[in-house]
Amino acid sequence: MTGAARRDGWVGYAFVGPFLLVYAAILIVPLLMGLWISLNNADLFGRREWVGLANYAQALGDPVLGQAFANTLTLTLLIVPPLTVIALLLALALNRATRLAAILRGVFFSSLVLSVTIVTLIWRFILTPDAGLVAVGLGALGRAPVPFLSDPAYVIPALAVTTLWWSLGFPIMLFLAGLQQVPHDIYEAAALDGAGRWTVFRRITLPSIRRTLLLVVMLQTAAQLQIFGQAQLLTGGGPGGASRTIVLYIFEVSFGRWELGYATAIAELLFGMILAVTLLQYWLVIRHEEQRA
Amino acid sequence: MSGLELIDVSKSYGATRVLDGVSLAIGAGEFVAFLGPSGSGKSTLLRIIAGLESLDAGEVWLGGERIDGLAPGARGIAMVFQHYALYPHMTVRENMAFGLVNAGVPKDEIARRIAQAAETLEIATQLDKKPGQMSGGQRQRVAIGRAIVKKPKLFLLDEPLSNLDAALRGRTRVELAQLRTRVDAALVMVTHDQSEAMTLADRIVVMNDRRIQQVGTPAEVYARPANAFVAGFVGSPAMAMLPARVAGHDGARVRIGLPCGADLPTAIPAAAGLEEGAPVTLGLRAEHVTLAPPATPGLPARIDLVERLGDRTYLYARLSDGSEIIAHAPGFSAVRPGEAVTLAVDAAAAHVFTADGTAHHPGPRA
Question: Which of A186, A196, A210 is the closest to B87 by Cβ?
């Protein structure tokens, strides 16, 4: 290696170094510490008592965690597919250079900048059975109000709708960015090839934004498996645990019951699950691509 | 006529007019080039024919059918795009089949047409590759193949050679010339490269400033340019344009005086606008200007630039009044920049353009 090349190498590390340090300090170290704590009986005062895999064994047999797991999975399945489809449809509609489209892009994106506190406040006004927007609407139709947030049958869908409304902006932006990467002339070639709108969407647009689609599904799945704020603020996990999510349960166990070791074990399990699901999605798409190539 | 016919086609983008009353008829098997500088409207015209742009006024007919209201896919037209516009996620085979599947062509017929086109274009071994795995020249062939299999009534080629390097350009030019023998359709090519147009097309449509300037065979456009723009745009090197004045008449022929004092008897018949003293532009192609043998009369000039092409040399020179002129010499000329030379002009081959751009060409030799 020449001196100049070596110097270039060090300059490179100098640029990457600060990021790597911060990355290690706030992600890698906590991950390893978490792994360590999960093998202990631990509380918030620093007590540590080695218990091996006992916390994990407890988690696997915990019926409350089982219910939280089912709730979280249901929410993820209720949120990610419609979110992806709706965001894609809106992005297709907004992918044009008109003033109205520009304004609407801003409108759809705006919900994203609201904090979860504001979002849940808005949706409380909409969903509350006393005088909420939906209740007023149902009343006008002569129907009884529905207690969305206190009926176990409605609470999960209500949380899903709230999350959908809040989360649309970012996938729309990702899809718009993906759509704008598609060269315009292949649409013209498709027009000359006599492709109808559906054929263009299915054979040209969708394959062209496949990677964006994967990104959106991966990001949203990872995000919704960690759903927390909406459940905590809108329902507190109730009624009777009907809307308790995994992260909410972790929060309760660690800061309510002070069982830090157990909470961390659940968190590690959740981390492993998200990692596995994300890798699975990635693998499915990549394998599909390789088969086609 | 069963070819392509444009009737009074006009197009504006907002307040900017890009095509102004363009009319043109192209025969069923003809190869026509739209030649012009960027912004001349030639690409817009091509896109209007394809249906990728709407027209504000006028009609487009193809094979006896009015097509300007039809969708692009329903016009019986295939287009080879400048950047090929291949579908990147489809294999070559799928690229070529796409339009046929949409048109409801039976599967075995699709396979037959693809096999045939792939054979003639020598891409039969590439059919299962994706465009991203191919070279520029191969992609171009795929784009041509995708057009051929549709058996269109009209081929549109948008700057087909501009993306290729020099070596590939020569070979593709040969292939495009062969293409017309393989297909039973009219071809329209857009280009800004006059040598492409000259070598490939049966007729050239020279466009500038939103309008057709001239339609003619390459020979006509070269030898009898309709106006000063065509004269300057077609031919390489460009025709030299010298400020001049009508000096008088020799019988029925016009005599031209140059500011440097030279007096040239042309073969141009006297006509309106060529009265004695009228300011004109004298057009001279390089092949009609040579180095005068020693001790013969001619125009004194000084050489600015020498362009040696091997078989001939172009000499860019300046007359005593500063006007620029281009001469040619056979083979490798030893003339150097800065050298003073005497130029012999074949005045009988000169063109004259009046101030409004109208061209006057040599009449039949007396």
Answer: A186
